Amino acid sequence: MNISKKDLEKSQVEINIEVNLDEMQPFLDKAALRLAQKTKISGFRPGKAPYALVQAQVGEMAIYEEALESIINHAYYEAIKKEDVQSVGQPEIKVEKFAPGNPLIFKAIVTLLPSLKLADWKSLRVAKKPVELKDEDTNKTLSRLQEMQAKENIVEREAKKGDKIVVDFEVYIDKVIIEGGKNYKYPVILGQGNMIPGFEEKLYGQKAGAELDFELKFPDKYFQKNVAGRLANFKVKIIGVYDRQLPEINDDFAKKIGLDTLAKLKEQLQNNIRQDKEYKEKQRQETEAIRAIIEKSIFGDIAPTLLENEVHKMIHELEHSLGEQGLDLPTYLKSLNKTHDDLHRDFEPQATERIKAAIILRQLARDENIQTSAEEIEADLQKQREQYRGNEQALQNIDHPEYKKQLGHILNNHKVIQFICDTIVK
User: Fold this and answer.
1) Which residues lie closer than 8 Å to 394 by C-beta, 6 or more apart?
2) What is the rounded distance in angstroms from the CA atom of residue 137 to the CA atom of residue 273?
3) What CATH number corresponds to the domain at position 88?
4) Pair 265, 199 in one domain
5) How many domains are there within the chain?
C-alpha cells in the first residue's frame, strides 16, 4: 500500500492511498461470498459458488463495488495509524481510480485533532466547597408538598391571598398578541408571585365572570428578550375563584406521602436534598477542574468543520431538551427574538470549550493509561438492559455495536475526570 500525505489549511491533511490487487483480494473474496449468498447460481447452494462463477453471474465490477467500502475503511485506518495522524470525525473520501484488474487509488481529506501542549495540571488546585443543609431547604420542600396536597373548593366570593384564580388572558404589544401570550384556564395562586409584577394585584377582590383590561410593563430582565422592558396590554377574564385549604404538616400529613411520621419525612427530605447538593457540588468541581486545565494549556487551531460539528451537536441536544418540554426550536428562537445563525454564534464559545475538554481527556487517558475494560462496559450494558426490560426498542438500541462503542468512550471519560478530581480537587 502506497501512502503520501500533504498538509492543507484549516487543520486538515490530504492522504493519498493506493491499494494494490493483492491487498484487495481478501476483501473481494468476502464480497463475492456475500453476493453468492444473495444470488441464485444453478447447481450451488447459497454462498457455496466459487469466485469465478459468481464473477460470471453478477459481473466483476459488482464484486468490486460490493468490496469498495470495506477496502477503503481498512486502508484508511491503516494509513492514519502508519502516518500517526490524530484525526477527528469522519474523513471526506474521493475515489480517484477504481476498476477491475487495477489498484484502488483514493484520497482522504482528514480533519486533525488540534495539537495540545498540556499544562502542568497536577500542580493546579480546585477548592472543595462544603455542602450545607439548612432548615429553610427542608421547609421549602415541605411547603411545596403541602401545596400539592391542598384541597380546593370553588367559591362565589371575591378573590383573596392564597386563593387559586383560573383565568383566560391575552397579552398584546402594539395591538398584536405576543408569542405565548394567549392562555386559557390558566391557574394563578395569589401571593406566590409567579406572574410578572402587578398582574396578581389586579386579581385581588375580583369574582368569577369579571373581565379586566389593564397595562403592565414587562421586567427589563425578562427571559423573553423581545418583550423585556416593554409596555403590554392585558385582557383577562376570571373563570373561577377557588378557596384552598392547606393540610397541617404533621404525622398524618407524612403518612399520606408514605412515611410513618413527620420526623421520618423530614429525614428523607434532608437525605434527598443533601444528595442533590452533593451531586451539584461534584459537577462544579469537575467543571472547574477541567476548565482550569484548559486555561493553562496551549491548543492548536481548531478546524472549522470540527467546531461546526460540535455546534450542530449542541443544537441537536437543545432540540431534544425542548421536545421533552413540548416545545420546538423555531418557537424557542422566536421567543428570544433570535435566528438560527444567532444561536450558532452563541454556541461557538461553549462548543470550543467542549472540544478542548475532549482533547484533554483523550490525552490524559493516553498519558495515564486509563482504560475501560470490556467487562466494565458489559456490566453497564446489563444494568441498562435490566432497567429497560420489556422495552424492545430501547433494548435494540442498547445492543447496537455503535452504542457499545459510545458507552465505552463515556465510561472512560468518567474515569479520566475522576482521576483529575482525585488529583487536584482538595
Assistant:
1) 388
2) 8
3) 3.30.70.1050
4) no
5) 3
Please give the model's pTM, rounded to 2 decimal places: 0.71
What CA–CA distance (Å, rounded) separates 160 from 138?
27
Is position 142 within any domain?
no
**Containing structural domain, residue 292:** 258-424
Q: Is 119 a domain residue?
A: no
219 and 96 assigned to the same domain:
no
| Whole-number pLDDT of residue 46 | 57
Distance in angstroms (rounded) separating the CA atoms of residues 391 and 355: 34
CA distance 109 to 91: 6
Q: How many CA atoms lie within 13 A of 139 on its CB side?
A: 3
* Low-confidence residues in the chain, pLDDT < 70: 39-57
3-state secondary structure 204-263: CCCCCCCEEEEEEECCCCCCCCCCCCCEEEEEEEEEEEEEEECCCCCHHHHHHHCCCCHH
pLDDT at 233: 95
Query: Within 13 Å of residue 31, how many CA atoms lie on the same side as its CB?
Result: 20
Instruction: Supply 77's cell numbers.
Output: 485506518
Q: How do residues 135-170 score in pLDDT, each as one tens digit?
A: 999 999 999 999 989 999 999 999 999 999 999 999
pLDDT at 40: 65
- Considering the domain boundaries, does residue 134 fall inside one? no
Residue at 48 is within a domain: yes
What integer best gives the mean pLDDT of the chain?
90
Considering 195, 212, 245, which residue would you say is the last residue of a domain? 245
Given 85, 112, 139, the domain boundary residue is: 112
| Distance between CA atoms of residues 51 and 53, nearest Å | 6
Q: Are residues 86 and 157 in the same domain?
A: no
Is there a single domain that holds both residue 315 and residue 240? no
- CA angle at 295 for the pair 291 and 297, rounded to the nearest 5°: 115
- Clarify whether residues 291 and 399 are in a common domain: yes
Question: What pLDDT is attached to residue 43?
Answer: 55
- Cα–Cα distance, 87 to 5 (Å, whole number): 13
Segment 33-80, tens digit of pLDDT? 888 777 666 655 555 566 666 666 678 888 888 889 999 999 999 998
Burial of 70 per CB tally in 10 Å (0-12, 13-18, 19+): middle
Yes or no: say if 339 and 225 are a contact pair by the CB < 8 Å rule. no
- Asked if 301 and 393 sit in the same domain, the reply is yes
